[in-house]
């Protein structure tokens, strides 16, 4: 894979006049970017700054906000539902999502990578990637039907093999595991493609040399292939962490955070505080806490997931 | 002179300039169209009401478009393809057509509520954006905590005006039963909507299942009710359809309403400060501050009764179970349902005979303080309770008299009767008749429930109470743990309501 190198600008004294001259020369570039920047400011940065401000207020979205300092943050960190249950559930789901994203698509990619028949490899690649076209909402609703405790396919299968029906999403003890089970066999098409691209980029000479040295398939996988695709793994992990921290699709469409807060997550509590209760201050506080968490985890991810060998073509 | 060719670079510059200009223009404010002031002078309360007519358009030829979310009697979309056996609803469209014929300057358009959406979430979004329909449906429990935010227009002056479409009427509000007026009376004593029909709740049961289980007479008391469910369970039926999902109407708070109001029959109205036979959010919030909003002994008894009952519920009742579908499949023997289902059962009959019965009575052997009275959920939660966004007073004040005139026309008894034929709702409009199939809902009862669970406080309160039952019913929580949690959760919900309505603080 080619490494793109950006040449640093030559160090020189920049005067205001020189800058203005440069802007005048490339004025149409700045004008073309103006639209994008204004949209970014309006829909990304302004809401974020507004949320930070309103996290210190009581605000219902209609009447003037009332400054209350850290009251909302106190509520977030002392609430049994928001802090203990929601963050705990989020931690479990994020952990599972990371393990799931880092292993199963990689396994699928490694198996396809080892196929000698190119046509067969293409077919399998297509089979795993095709489900991407199905909207995520559809997938959630299909699994909701599968999990129906009275008429769902899962319990029908259990009945056939003589096992007592499970309440799945309807029981506090099985609801969260049911969310984790959904999506089986957990081979995300996009992640698999990214891993496969990384594996295919490994030069064949390196692999051949390892084979000649007597390295078996499994040894090659753990000692060579994984270290060489660490950038891809890091990317998938961080994307999944960010996605998991923010997502509440299952809660919105199916569980509503229940039963009995068994599936609630901070993003859902943020949505509920804002939309059901009209407490935008508390919702903003949850949002700010999530932002800090995501930012921190991103930094940790960059520092922690490294390889001694990051191959550059 | 030969035409000058434009270079690619120059063309890109021009395109960039044009797109940036378009983006800036789109972000600019739209000049507001000046609205004409209403030609109809408002009548102050207490004064002799002046006759009202649809005001002449301020500008000749000005058309008013009223966007109306009709909810219950909403006419079927003409483009909708119906299933076999389904009937098309047309009554309200015919009424609108007649109105538009008499008022060519007015156009009525139906707002189609997004399927699957949550009403509370929809309300918040629409009110924030100030793009709600000109007339919208909402249960008033969803509105009262938000009246201070101008979500609903004050109807009082119009309610005191005569309805020109009803002969002999001197005040519009005289057309409606008392419960309809009480239901629309806000925490400040003003009227915030019109309520033309209402709802009743009974238990619908599978006659065939009862016969097979050897249940000869319909259970009247709680003990008989439990016995009947045991028999049904022994025959392989799921005796009672229920779930604790806040998005499914409406098992937990209906059950709570019947049980709690029976157990506190003699004391519940002590918190009805305005003596209108309806407990309001403000009354609950204010009495909660005094510590006497709920009878916690009775609440614990309700919990015990629900727990005893829950053994007869479907698997997965703690979450989402479609017990209505299971009933139609003949798996569930009975469940609580509203009168609006009558039209659904007519258009899509079950393969077995159904019948309706009242909620069983709690007798003295179950609760010594019981008065053994029959209570019923029968009141104003109908499909024709309409409100107008409060912001219209500033945004489009000249439209308000037109909207009110249309509502007055809609509330003509014959018009309400025609709508009720399609919706099977209970009539709260004097002179309007309900369908004969509503006869079970005309069975006598002692009192319509004045209090319907924590939903009376707020929709957030409803969700909190549902979570409480989700925690308690399938668990081995002790009585003390349950009461402690219930009090804590209830207080938290009261605080939320007080945060939104500081003037309710005692």
Structural class, judged by helices and strands of chain A? mainly alpha
What is the name of the CATH architecture of the domain at 72-113 and 186-304 in chain A?
A: Orthogonal Bundle
Q: Which overall shape of chain B is indicated by the principal axes computed on the Cα atoms?
A: globular
What portion of residues of chain B is helical?
A: 25-40%
Work out the helix count of chain B. Answer: 18
User: In this structure, how is the largest beta sheet of chain B organized?
Assistant: 6 strands, mixed
Strand segment count of chain B: 13
Mean pLDDT of chain A: 87
Describe the structure.
The complex is a heterodimer of chains A (313) and B (506). With 313 residues, chain A is mainly α. In chain A, strands 1-2 form a two-stranded antiparallel sheet. In chain A, β1 (57-58) and β2 (66-67) form a beta hairpin. The N and C termini of chain A lie close together (5 Å). Chain A has 15 helices and two strands. Helices cover 68% and strands 1% of the residues of chain A. The relative contact order of chain A is 0.13. Chain A has a domain at 72-113 and 186-304: MetI-like (MetI-like fold), CATH 1.10.3720.10. Chain B has 506 residues and is of the alpha/beta class. Chain B contains 18 helices and 13 strands. In chain B, strands 5, 6, 7, 8, 10 and 12 form a six-stranded mixed β-sheet that branches. Chain B is globular and about 90 Å long. Mean pLDDT of chain B is 87; it is low at 29-59. The chains are: A mainly alpha (313), B alpha/beta (506).
């Amino acid at each position: 894979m080619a490494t793109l190198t950006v040449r640093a600008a030559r160090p020189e004294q920049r005067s205001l006049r020189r800058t203005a001259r440069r802007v005048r020369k490339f004025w149409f570039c700045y004008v073309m970017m103006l639209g994008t920047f204004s949209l970014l400011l309006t829909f990304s940065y302004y809401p974020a700054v507004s949320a930070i401000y309103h996290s210190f207020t009581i605000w219902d979205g209609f009447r003037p906000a009332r400054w209350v300092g850290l009251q909302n943050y106190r509520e977030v960190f002392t609430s049994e539902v928001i802090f203990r249950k929601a963050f705990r559930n989020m931690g479990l789901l994020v952990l599972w999502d990371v393990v799931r994203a880092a292993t199963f698509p990689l396994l699928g990619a490694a198996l396809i990578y080892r196929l000698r028949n190119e046509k067969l490899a293409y077919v399998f690649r297509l089979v795993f990637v095709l489900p991407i076209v199905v909207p995520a909402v559809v997938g959630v609703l299909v699994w909701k039907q599968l999990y129906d405790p009275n008429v769902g396919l899962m319990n029908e299968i259990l009945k056939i093999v003589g096992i007592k029906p499970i309440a799945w999403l309807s029981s506090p003890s099985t609801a969260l595991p049911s969310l984790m089970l959904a999506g089986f066999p957990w081979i995300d098409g996009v992640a698999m493609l990214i891993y496969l691209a990384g594996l295919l980029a490994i030069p064949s000479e390196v692999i051949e040399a390892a084979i000649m040295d007597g390295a078996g398939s499994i040894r090659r996988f753990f000692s060579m292939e994984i270290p060489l695709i660490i950038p891809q793994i890091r990317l998938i992990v961080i994307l999944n962490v960010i996605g998991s921290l923010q997502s509440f699709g299952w809660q919105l469409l199916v569980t509503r955070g229940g039963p009995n807060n068994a599936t609630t997550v901070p993003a859902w509590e943020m949505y509920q505080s804002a939309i059901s209760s009209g407490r935008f201050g508390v919702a903003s506080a949850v949002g700010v806490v999530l932002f800090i968490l995501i930012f921190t985890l991103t930094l940790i991810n960059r520092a922690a997931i490294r390889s001694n060998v990051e191959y550059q073509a | 002179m030969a035409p000058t060719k434009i270079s690619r670079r120059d063309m890109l510059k021009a395109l960039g300039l044009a797109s940036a200009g378009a983006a800036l223009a789109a972000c600019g404010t739209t000049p507001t169209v000046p609205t004409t002031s209403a030609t109809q002078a408002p009548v102050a309360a207490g004064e002799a009401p002046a006759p009202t007519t649809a005001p002449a358009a301020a500008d000749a030829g000005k058309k008013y478009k009223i966007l109306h979310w009709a909810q219950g009697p909403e006419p079927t979309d003409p483009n909708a393809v119906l299933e076999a056996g389904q009937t098309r609803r047309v009554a309200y469209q015919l009424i609108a057509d007649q109105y538009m014929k008499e008022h060519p300057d007015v156009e009525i358009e139906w707002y189609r509520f997004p399927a699957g959406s949550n009403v509370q979430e929809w309300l918040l979004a629409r009110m924030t954006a100030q793009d709600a329909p000109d007339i919208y449906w909402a249960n008033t429990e969803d509105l009262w905590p938000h009246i201070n935010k101008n979500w609903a227009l004050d109807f009082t002056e119009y309610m005191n005006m005569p309805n020109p479409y009803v002969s002999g009427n001197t005040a519009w509000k005289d057309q409606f039963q008392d419960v309809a007026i009480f239901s629309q009376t806000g925490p400040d004593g003003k009227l915030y909507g019109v309520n033309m029909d209402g709802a009743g709740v009974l238990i619908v049961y599978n006659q065939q299942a009862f016969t097979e289980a050897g249940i000869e007479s319909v259970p009247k008391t709680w003990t008989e009710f439990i016995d009947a469910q045991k028999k049904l369970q022994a025959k392989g039926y799921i005796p009672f359809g229920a779930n604790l999902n806040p998005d499914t109407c409406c098992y937990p708070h209906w059950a709570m309403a019947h049980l709690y109001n029976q157990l506190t029959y003699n004391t519940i109205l002590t918190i009805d400060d305005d003596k209108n036979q309806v407990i309001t959010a403000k009354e609950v919030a204010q009495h909660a501050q005094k510590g006497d909003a709920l009878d916690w002994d009775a609440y614990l008894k309700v919990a015990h009764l629900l727990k005893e009952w829950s053994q007869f519920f479907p698997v997965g009742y703690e979450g989402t179970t479609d017990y209505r579908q299971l009933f139609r499949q003949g798996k569930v023997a009975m469940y609580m349902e509203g009168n609006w289902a009558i039209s659904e059962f007519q258009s899509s009959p079950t393969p077995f005979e159904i019948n309706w019965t009242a909620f069983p009575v709690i007798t003295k052997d179950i609760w010594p303080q019981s008065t053994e009275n029959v209570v019923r959920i029968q009141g104003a939660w109908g499909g024709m309770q309409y409100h107008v966004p409060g912001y219209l007073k500033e945004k489009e004040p000249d439209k308000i008299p037109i909207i009110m005139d249309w509502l007055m026309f809609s509330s003509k008894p014959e018009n309400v009767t025609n709508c009720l034929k399609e919706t099977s709702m209970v009539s709260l409009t004097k002179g309007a008749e309900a369908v004969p199939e509503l006869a079970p809902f005309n069975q006598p009862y002692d009192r319509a429930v004045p209090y319907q669970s924590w939903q009376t406080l707020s929709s957030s309160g409803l969700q909190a109470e549902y979570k409480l039952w989700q925690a308690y019913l399938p668990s081995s929580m002790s009585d003390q743990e349950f009461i402690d949690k219930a009090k804590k959760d209830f207080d938290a919900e009261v605080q939320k309501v007080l945060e939104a309505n500081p003037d309710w603080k005692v």
